[in-house]
Amino acid sequence: MSTAASQPSTLGVCSWSLQVTSIPELNRLLAELGVKATQIACGDPHHASWDEGDAMPQAALAADFEMTGAMLGFPGEDYTTPQTIKETGGFGPVSLRDERMDRLRWALGRTKELGLSDLMLHAGFIPHPGDPDRKAFLDTLLEAARLAGEQGITLAFETGQEPAELLRQTLDELKAPNLKVNFDPANMLLYDMGDPIRAVELLGPDIKSVHLKDARRPTTPGHWGEEVPLGQGEVGLARFLDALKAIGYSGPLMVEREVGDQAARIRDIGLGLEAVRSLLAGS
What's the pTM value of the predicted model, to 2 decimals? Predict the structure, then answer.
């Protein structure tokens, strides 16, 4: 199994979207879907452990798939409503920052064990300029960048919880070369945070990886939008892929599906992969 840098337009699936709990199950489902690549959940034992436990990295390295990066979720993150995740997500909760920095340290070690150099996570809702917590929040991100840099790892923050303009401004302020973006166009719609195509243009130089997911904007303010199968929402899959091409993006494209039982997800992911392959072949 290779963990080398991905070739242009490497197409794969996020491991957690398949609701797997073991490396053999992930290996089997990826093969059934006809892909060789995955962005893999690093499996914090306090949040989303693998059956293999501490032996997970060795099992993954021996499996017949390529890993393009790892993903960290924090214990206690609550996605019930936009408000609950604002209160509980990423490094947002002041009282949990030390604990979550410890989780990050663990995840950086796991990422190294997996032979990877990219770790994705939700940073939390970034405070706007003028917010009294902004400096402390940005200092926390700089500390995260420092810890990752010591391990030779790039941190990629997932989009959606803030407008692209705010994320652009924040990255420019931080000036940390190993802080990048994991771009998810559907999240921008689910949170109603602007136009994903415009966001690609703003964030282009810092987009490290991409989640391919689709959604419709919320119809009621303060509520979630609706996640839908890839190609059936408001992202505009063809336009989105064209926008990535226009900025010269050549990194991994990881299909993500977070709605439905395992069988429904596998079906939807399979259809999404077909749609992407067809568009890439015609580009």
Answer: 0.95
